[in-house]
Amino acid sequence: MLSLYRRHRPRTFDDVVGQEHIVRTLRNAIELDKVHHAYLFVGSRGTGKTSMAKLLACALNAQGGPRTDFSPDDPACQAIARGTSLDVVEMDAASNNGVDDIRELRENVALTPMGGGKRVYILDEAHMLSTPAWNAFLKTLEEPPSHVVFVLATTEAHKVPATIIDRCHRFDFHRPSLQQIAGVVRKVADQEGIEVPDSAITMIARSATGSFRDALGTLEQLVTYGGKEVKLEDVLEVLGVADAELVLDAAEALADHDAAAALMSVEKLSASGRDLTQFMRELAAHLRHLFVVQTLGDVPDSFAVTAEHTDRLQSQAERIPQAEVLRAIDLLAAALSAVKDGSDPRIQLEIALLKSAQPKADASVQALMARIERLEHALGGRGPAPAAPKQADSQPAAEAPPAAEEPAPAEPPRAAATPPERAVARAEAGAAAAAAAVEPEPEPEPQSEPEAEPEQEPQPDPEPVGALPVDLDHLRSLWPAAVEAVRGENAMVGALLAEARPAELEGGRLTVAFAEGATFSKKKAENNRALLVKALRDLTGHSLELAYELRDGEGGAEGGAEPSSSMDEEQLLERLKQEFGATEVFDTEEN
């Protein structure tokens, strides 16, 4: 029994789907009697390269001479379709790739056609020919007998020598769209009397990944599995594709930032016996669909299996930010890579979902940025979604006590090596305090109607935190975060400021105190005061005037004097050279 994809090959040029540019060119060449002696068909598997070569052979050997409107019932065309024609030679270059095979071909090309007007040689997988075979074939390909036409088909054109390509007319076969594959599957199913719902056809077309042959092969396998009536459940079983509901439930857990629900989706998947690796691919494809929906603003017909899935796709696209979607795709890609290296699929899937649902469980820069974005939504009131602000409020509140208990690192070298997440935790502590101060003032917001615009004109200019009152205790709690911000701009100045502490605050003037012997530190801080002013403005919303003083018993965050605060200038310079790899630059009058 012939397989479906062989029984339903295109029988005429009108039956070809998705390659109109090639059909038009070949038709014109035949009608104008300008058929080239060599063609190179390039395209991915299952796009119709061999079928097009046979259609060209049928047109060249049809009764009455070369013609484009040949009849598929012509005996010569039927022989070509069955592979029994003596004038059409199909050669598998993957298994006949040596010089001896090409020599035999060169001897046979001199034979005249047995019944038609042309002898057509079809070399499938032509890129598999060896270099000596290409060299032996070169002259024959360049100047073949007038009755010979060569058709070279390949999936990897970059492996074909340039000297061969420039002697052929090259045609690139396009990968068919999802709708084109679904149309061919529907047509074959109707001709074979197979009942298939549209949702199952969409799933078959999607799994074919641009190959007509794969789609028809899957349809034939489904008929063998369940008979002439194919159901969507049969498609999921045969293909091993994860249930769409499980994929949607996992995406819901990511949208709600619900780690427990994410783990339960993995448990359901494992209990169902489906392939975890395939589920990761399906979930990544689903997240890609969300990203496309967010960009286009609408759900394409090819993305969903049912109308219910379309609604859920749209809902999830509105609730998950694009940055989180891209981050989840990256995490799934890393999980798939780890599975290829031998890691357990379930562990990798659970880690990827947990990191996506809980950014605080991930120490990467992307996760920290996600946490900061949630804080900004919580403080600025920009996020209308109720779930994200609640977690953003509870998360800083939970992390505020540790940040307040971490006044400053023990010594400057360790402070320089502080990881970025500690700085974010300290910033979150300050943001939590600011959020607590903002809570009593939500009432003015409902009054921001057109009538009240003249009264609220001065308030939009300051930042959300800028209008908050600031006191000395608040500045001392924010001091570690300010030092981290300065260190990000200038590591040396940040290390020096770690030995100081806010001493007094009068109006908008902040006095920063260094230990009595820290003259050098005080001088460097004064020369770079703009860094600290900017850091404090970002944290408090106020532009403070700075004054630096030397005081007995001062230095170190929260008053804890450190041994390094009493070092003289030479000792401090020596330590900076050792810890930071610094070099001493002397001030001159010119610089």
Highlighted features:
591 residues, 8% strand, alpha/beta, single chain, 5-stranded parallel β-sheet
Q: How would you concisely characterize the structure shown here?
A:
By secondary structure, the protein is of the alpha/beta class. It contains 26 helices and eight strands.
Characterize the structure shown:
With 591 residues, this protein is of the alpha/beta class. It has 26 helices and 8 strands. It has helices spanning 4-7, 20-31, 49-60, 75-82, 99-108, 131-142, 162-165, 178-192, 198-207, 212-226, 232-239, 244-256, 259-272, 276-296, 307-319, 322-340, 345-357, 365-380, 387-405, 412-416, 420-438, 472-489, 491-497, 519-527, 529-540, 569-580; strands at 38-42, 88-92, 119-124, 148-154, 169-172, 501-506, 509-515, 545-551. It has a 5-stranded parallel beta sheet, covered by helices on one side. Strands 6-7-8 form a 3-stranded mixed beta sheet. Helix 21 runs antiparallel to helix 22 (472-489). The longest helix has 21 residues, at 276-296. The N and C termini lie far apart (90 Å). Mean pLDDT is 78; it is low at 382-420, 433-467 and 556-566.
